[in-house]
Amino acid sequence: MNPYPKRKIRIETTKKTYSARYVEILEKWKKLPVWVHKEEFLKTLKENQIVLLVGETGSGKTTQIPQFVLEAKWLVGCTQPRRVAAMSVSRRVAEEMDVEIGEEVGYTVRFEDCTSSKTVLKYLTDGMLLREAMADPLLGRYKVIVLDEAHERTLATYLLFGLLKQTLVRRPDLKLVVMSATLEADKFHKYFTGVPLIKVPGRLHPVEILYTREPQRDYLEAAISTVIQIHMCEPPGDVLVFLTGEEEIEDACRRITRNLGDHVNVLPLYSTLSPAMQQKIFEPTPDQVRKVVVSTNIAETSLTIDGIVYVVDPGFSKQKLYHPDTRVESLLVSPISQASADQSAGRAGRTRPGKCFRLYAEKSFNELEKQTYAEILRSNLANTVLNLKRLGVENLLRFDLMDSPAPETLARALDDLYHLQALDDECNLTKTGEMMSEFPLDPQMAKMLIVSPQFNCSNEILSISAMLSVPNCFIRPRGEAQKAADEAKSSFAHIYGDHLTLLNVFHAFLQNNQDPDWCYENFINYRKMKSAVSVREQLVRIMLRFQIKLCSPDFNSKDYYVNIRKALLSGYFMQVAHLERTGHYLTFRDKDDQVVHLHPSNCLDHKAEWVIYNEYVFTTRNFIRTVTYIRGEWLVDVAPHYYKLANFPNSEAKRVLQRHFKKRRLSEERSC
Ligand code: CDP
Ligand code: MG
Description:
Elements: H1 8-13, H2 20-29, H3 38-47, E1 50-55, H4 61-68, E2 75-80, H5 83-97, E3 105-109, E4 112-114, E5 121-125, H6 126-135, E6 142-147, H7 155-170, E7 175-180, H8 185-191, E8 197-200, E9 207-211, H9 219-233, E10 238-242, H10 246-260, E11 264-269, H11 275-280, E12 290-295, H12 298-301, E13 308-313, E14 316-323, E15 328-335, H13 338-346, E16 354-358, H14 362-367, H15 382-390, H16 407-419, H17 431-438, H18 443-451, H19 458-469, H20 481-490, H21 498-511, H22 516-521, H23 526-545, H24 560-572, E17 576-579, E18 585-587, E19 595-598, E20 610-618, E21 622-630, H25 632-638, H26 652-671
Parallel strand pairs: 1-7, 1-8, 2-5, 2-6, 3-5, 6-7, 9-16, 10-12, 10-13, 11-12, 13-16, 19-21
Antiparallel strand pairs: 3-4, 14-15, 17-18, 17-20, 18-19, 20-21
Helix pairs in contact: 4-5, 6-7, 9-10, 15-16, 15-17, 17-18, 18-19, 18-24, 19-21, 19-23, 25-26
The structure holds cytidine-5'-diphosphate (CDP) and magnesium ion (MG).
Magnesium ion (MG) binds near residues 61, 62 and 148.
């Protein structure tokens, strides 16, 4: 008799014997807490259309529950708010089922689809399921949908809640499982009235919480020295350090390694890390070597790393913030919430009693917000509104959401879409708007692509869009190599600005046959360049589907770069800044202006009078990043409908534009 539980899918489809790896991990997953509840869960799901399931991080929700409901002939979809989690967890489950990733078990994230016609269990980001719902509102391919990590309260998961509520009525055979790591489930319970709730008790060991006496001035510094101190003074056990982003994490990894050498195995974890590197965090280290994982808050609940005994929590994470008054959405390093801090601390108690080092005073903890605000309250909703419109939701204010966005945020979103000509005067989706919603991009970028043939440069705009979609292709190591890296970058620099610099890099990569060595020599991130190539191919397919012409201006024409910059402006005309006589840039939009600074990474050779920017970043000051020089009169040509100026604050920029308008009027009159 087969000593292992029968894995139906695998046996039916492949009929091989089990691999050694399968046997090895089998013992482990049978011990996960959710297994005790398997029968109860399946029975409840059979009798109900929706089930809520709450269980401590690491209890096996993400990896096991979708397998419980698996049947050979139907599709189960399990959403993850983060792409790394979707990729990593699906790999793990493929291993558990002893199948190749991309076959019976696969994943779909933006710009990457690793599934096949054989796939019966698909992990996908919540954003991707939302896109699928746009193409097929009934989600006809799915039999069971699992919305995981509901406690993260991401925008896409919220929208899926609302949509699925409607879909379930029309599809009585469809089942929905909502899973969450925390007992905030009360709130979900209220939203899904009358839905049964299954609680999987956790298996957490006690975690001792230590605070600093004083607030720390530099949390990065403090985090690094805490790791060193743990390594020197504490018994064996792995360490998990939370930091806010890629650069900071890489920097910390280097410095910890420099200090502790071979005694530790330091591993980074963040969303843009290569899948091979991501997988490393799950591998055990040799005896005597301590594993130190330095991660963004992705390791807070999305990914469980076993063996962690010490957690270092600086109390900050990068969070999206949106101010409807200034219309600025930015990622800002901000204090975490108490709920987040407690989740992080819990990571230390998975295997045995642990310790959590909070790099702030206890008093500061008490002053933190209780819960992190839902993303819908912190986002620019232009994209969301576009998607909902596409989904046929007419009255956005009446759409059933767990938290309602601020009315001014909604109003701003409608305004922006109107200016982008995605909505008409009656607030209905236009043809352009419909096309825009098909691009997995922000509305400005989608608009820019759609109109780029008018400037005869859709090929170039495609390349730039692809590069903007995989940010930060330049590698800039600290220390000695930094100068060489900066020199390499300057060889690509275009004096008109960063968008064109990105275009240069993309062209050079292709000219050098996508050679990894060439990337290495030029301090360019090879993997990101490969993704840019793949993103571009996918965008091309969407363009062709809509019969949008692919074309390039004559490279030798003096208008080559003029055309490209005008095309940029046709999407991003609401992201323009003007150099005032005071020497400061002021953003120029209706109803608002802000003092901003060019981000130090810019390639401009002078402070141009007008610039267009891709992104607004707050750090110590307000920066605009990825900037390109444009001419003021183009605003009048490209976006006259927006630059009516009556609603614009009085400024030098406004006076300059008024002169341009006047000039244009005069020349029009003359030519009549
Ligand atoms: O979703 P939940 O937090 O309840 O747990 P899970 O993600 O299903 O994790 C269950 C177990 O699988 C944990 O012990 C993880 O460490 C392990 N796992 C793994 O070893 N490799 C992965 N790529 C993902 C999970
Ligand atoms: Mg999970």
